[in-house]
């Protein structure tokens, strides 16, 4: 099967002898993002050209591009420096009763674990860990953990090691039934796996910007339900997040009100004069493609990879449990996975070992030649 690649990856930075299947680690770099970064560095060398309004106009453009991409109100988006920062905001604001439980996933990424461990220490609650198995899908494991004693469900959209999916609509329904809050770490799925904010109605959704969203490192996004936009408490009390902060001449006229919406949760120094233009350029390209196009193309890529893996006797997640934007190839031990990954690296194919799996993650830069090269090597990795 030949997958149509309209740009053949030509708008990305590429090295001819490297085939990159590690987007779940760090996204490939768009040439437009590189240009935006170089231009921003050049401009930042002339600080006299930076006006007061520039502290806010760039971030507002970025916020608007992100809101457009995920189809939510721009006022519900905050800019954050990391996934753990977004989780910390959720943990600070969501009530957890003594004797209740917080549901997480076994071997969940630690950024969405440590804040909840701290939370139960101070609230006399417990962590309840959903454990998947060969016969228990991750979605079922999560649903089985939610009951009337659940205060918070803090989960990813898919497992970061191999892409196993969680059916968020079902989880959200269970949360509403038991009056539990829902926090989603979408760092490994946002923009490449459909997420209907309006149907799911999560309390918070967070995502880093440097993976599938193709932006700069150290700049991510937090979606907040409208309730928390008006009642939530930020981690930082930055002058930038206060009402009227655009008028520098009145900064010492201290005020209690925040800028509208989720902006109260923006991290200090969010203007990020270099990272913001880079991430804006990335989101402009994502919006030009459209999320549906990205999802469709990556599904076609992973389908080819799955066919090659199965043809060569490699065991992978069944399609009913797998995401359509990454493929995890499990091995009997982590040592075997590392050895297989080293063989791939020797051939110029870059992927990641996560747990006992090699995680293969294409993106819009992936070409038919890239897929052919990988599928040929999978033949050598088969049993």
Strands, helices and their partners?
Layout: E1 19-20, H1 31-44, H2 54-70, E2 77-80, H3 83-93, E3 101-105, H4 114-123, E4 126-130, H5 138-145, E5 150-156, H6 168-177, E6 181-185, H7 197-200, E7 204-207, E8 220-224, H8 226-231, H9 275-289, H10 291-311, E9 327-330, H11 334-346, E10 349-350, E11 352-354, E12 357-360, H12 368-381
Parallel strand pairs: 1-10, 3-4, 3-5, 5-6, 6-7
Antiparallel strand pairs: 2-8, 7-8, 9-12, 11-12
Helix pairs in contact: 1-9, 2-9, 3-4, 10-12
Describe this structure in words.
This protein has 383 residues and is an alpha/beta fold. Helix content is 37%, strand content 13%. It has twelve helices and twelve strands. It is globular, with a radius of gyration of 22 Å. The relative contact order is 0.17.
Key terms for this structure?
alpha/beta, 7-stranded mixed β-sheet, 383 residues, single chain, 3-stranded antiparallel β-sheet
- Low-confidence spans: none
Amino-to-carboxy terminus distance: 24 Å
Q: Tell me, briefly, the overall form.
A: globular
The Rg value, from CA coordinates, equals 22 Å
Tally the beta strands.
Answer: 12
Strand proportion, as a percent range, falls in 5-15%
Mean pLDDT: 95
Oligomer: single chain
Major beta-sheet overview: 7 strands, mixed
Instruction: Describe the strand arrangement of the main beta sheet, using strand numbers.
Output: 2-8-7-6-5-3-4
In DSSP terms, counting alpha (H) and pi (I) runs of 4 or more, how many helices?
12
Estimate percent helicity: 25-40%
Give me the secondary-structure category. alpha/beta
């Amino acid at each position: 099967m030949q997958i149509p690649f309209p740009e053949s990856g030509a708008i990305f930075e590429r090295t001819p002898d490297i085939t990159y299947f590690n987007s779940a680690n760090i996204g490939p770099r768009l040439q437009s993002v590189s240009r935006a970064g170089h231009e921003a560095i050049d401009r930042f060398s002339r600080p006299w050209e930076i006006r007061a309004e520039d502290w806010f106009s760039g971030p507002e453009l970025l916020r608007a591009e992100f809101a457009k991409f995920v189809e939510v109100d721009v006022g519900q988006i905050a800019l954050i420096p990391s996934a753990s920062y977004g989780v910390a905001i959720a943990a600070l604001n969501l009530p957890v009763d003594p004797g209740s439980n917080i549901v997480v996933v076994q071997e969940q990424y630690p950024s969405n674990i440590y804040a909840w461990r701290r939370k139960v220490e101070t609230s006399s609650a417990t962590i309840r860990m959903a454990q998947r198995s060969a016969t228990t899908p991750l979605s079922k494991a999560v649903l089985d953990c939610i009951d009337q004693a659940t205060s918070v469900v803090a989960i990813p959209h898919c497992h970061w090691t191999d892409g196993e999916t969680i059916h968020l609509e079902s989880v959200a329904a269970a949360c509403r039934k038991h009056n539990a809050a829902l926090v989603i770490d979408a760092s490994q799925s946002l923009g490449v796996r459909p997420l209907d904010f309006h149907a799911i109605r999560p309390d918070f959704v967070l995502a880093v910007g440097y993976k599938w969203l193709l932006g700069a490192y150290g700049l991510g996004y937090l979606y907040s339900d409208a309730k928390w936009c008006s009642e939530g408490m930020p981690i930082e009390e930055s002058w930038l997040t206060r009402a009227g902060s655009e008028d520098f001449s009145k900064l010492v006229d201290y005020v209690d009100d925040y800028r509208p919406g989720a902006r109260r949760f923006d991290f200090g120094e969010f203007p990020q004069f270099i990272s913001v233009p880079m991430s804006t350029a990335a989101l402009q390209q994502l919006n030009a493609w459209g999320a549906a196009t990205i999802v469709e193309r990556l599904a076609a890529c992973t389908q080819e990879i799955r066919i090659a893996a199965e043809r060569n006797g490699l065991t992978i997640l069944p399609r009913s449990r797998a995401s359509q934007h990454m493929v995890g190839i499990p091995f009997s031990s982590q040592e075997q996975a590392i050895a297989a990954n080293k063989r791939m690296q020797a051939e110029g194919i870059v992927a990641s070992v996560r747990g006992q799996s090699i995680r293969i993650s294409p993106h819009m830069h992936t070409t038919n030649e890239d897929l052919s090269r990988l599928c040929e090597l999978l033949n050598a990795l088969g049993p």
